[in-house]
Amino acid sequence: MSEFHVPVVDISPYVAGGTAAERATVAAAVDAACREVGFIQITGHGIAPAAAAGLAGAIDDFFALPLETKKRWLRPAAENRGYTAPKSETLALSLGVQSETRMKDFFEAFNVGSAASDYPEAALLAEHYAENTWPEVDGFRDRVDAWRTEAGRVARTMVGIFEDALELAPGTIAGLARHPIEVLRMNNYALPDGTTVELDEDFIGMGEHTDYGIVTILWADRAKGLQVLHGGEWHDVSPADGALLINLGDLTTRLTNEQWLSTLHRVKPPIHVVDGIGTIQRRRSAAYFFDGDAEATVGPLPGFIDERHPRVYRDVTVDEHIHAKLRGSRAGVVNTDAAREADRVLNAAR
Ligand SMILES: O=C(O)CCC(=O)C(=O)O
Ligand SMILES: [Fe+2]
Predict the structure, then answer these.
(1) Which atom of ligand 1 is nearest to the CA of 285?
(2) Share of the chain above pLDDT 70, in %
(3) What residues does the ion ligand 2 have nearby, CB within 5 Å?
């Protein structure tokens, strides 16, 4: 496996104030990372360690509940909210690929997001702004909301950096996210005690996918499992201490006509065999998806189409794009409008 590294960028000049030259250095580093890798580790984001500890504690408290209790917070597949039980989603279907033998992804999750009541001034497409469900776990809502607010701030900072890095007028991307669809998906990868894992290449925590929106802010613990597709091979990634992972979603790829890539990733925890019994180390993560306004139209921006770069995407609404992706992952309806992402998976080594 070739050497692979997710670039580290200190964004503090955009968070704590910096000179124009310092900001230009940050924007150039982000541009290079988005062209070459599509994943960045950021430091200097200004989120206090206590907020991350609060998030991790909320995740631990909720997922420790018995399965039957957690199922009280299940919601219909069409709503991207509440509890997802293990083996109920298949992320690979969001881009239309799935091997016939593969079982469903074994992650379990809890989703919260922006609700219609957060944006009373706007007439919204109800599907994307469902109200939240909160489990009866002490302090869960406060800890999760505190993280969500901070992740939202970082996402908006990243959008400003993207605009500078792409030499876009301020507001070009931010203007697509005035009442954004946003979702925080808290993931737990664990197996019930006593489960034996066979050494099966189709054993998957979360299937290969690109994220759907503008940008994702990913908190992850250090347990191994996250893999990123680069140069046709899968590479293990774990964030440096205190760093957050940032990755681009499909909408940014569409805006840039593929000059920046929504990088494919998956979660495939390593299997440890002890006395002939295979098991995995528990892993936790929380992906904050910043997806744009449901009714906004997204297509390649004018500066990104020329003779060398013909338009490779039609215009879509955020609603249309996210709807097709979620029907794949959550409702099992193969997404047939993601041929470009699917090709990248099919061309990769397993
Ligand atoms: O668990 C991880 O590190 C990745 C999670 C992820 O890719 C997602 O929730 O979209
Ligand atoms: Fe993801």
Answers:
(1) 1
(2) 93
(3) 211
* Ligand 1 center from residue 330 Cα (angstroms): 15
Give yes or no for residue 334 having a pLDDT over 90.
no
Spatial neighbors of 189 by CB under 8 A, at least 6 apart, are: 106, 107, 205, 206, 223, 225, 267, 269, 280, 282, 283, 284, 285
Bridge-partner residues for 229, per DSSP?
Answer: 234
Which domain range does residue 334 map to? 8-346
* Nearest partner of 175 among 194, 190, 193, 160, judged by Cα: 160
- Domain membership flag for residue 1: no
Say if 275 falls within a structural domain: yes
Q: How many domains does the chain contain in total?
A: 1
Work out which ligand 1 atom sits closest to the CA atom of 187: 1
Segment 61-112, tens digit of pLDDT: 999 999 999 999 999 888 899 999 988 888 888 877 765 556 678 899 999 9
Q: Whose CA is nearest to atom 8 of ligand 1?
A: 287
- ipTM score here? 0.99
Question: Rounded distance, CA 238 to CA 299, Å?
Answer: 32
Q: Is the pTM of this model over 0.90?
A: yes
Find the 302 Cα to ligand 1 centroid distance in Å.
Answer: 32
Is the residue at 114 inside a domain?
Answer: yes
Q: What CATH code is carried by the domain that includes residue 251?
A: 2.60.120.330
Q: Give the per-residue pLDDT at 98.
A: 65
Ligand 1, CB cutoff 6 Å, lining residues:
185, 187, 206, 211, 218, 220, 226, 265, 267, 285, 287
d(CA 146, CA 149): 5
Within a domain: 157: yes
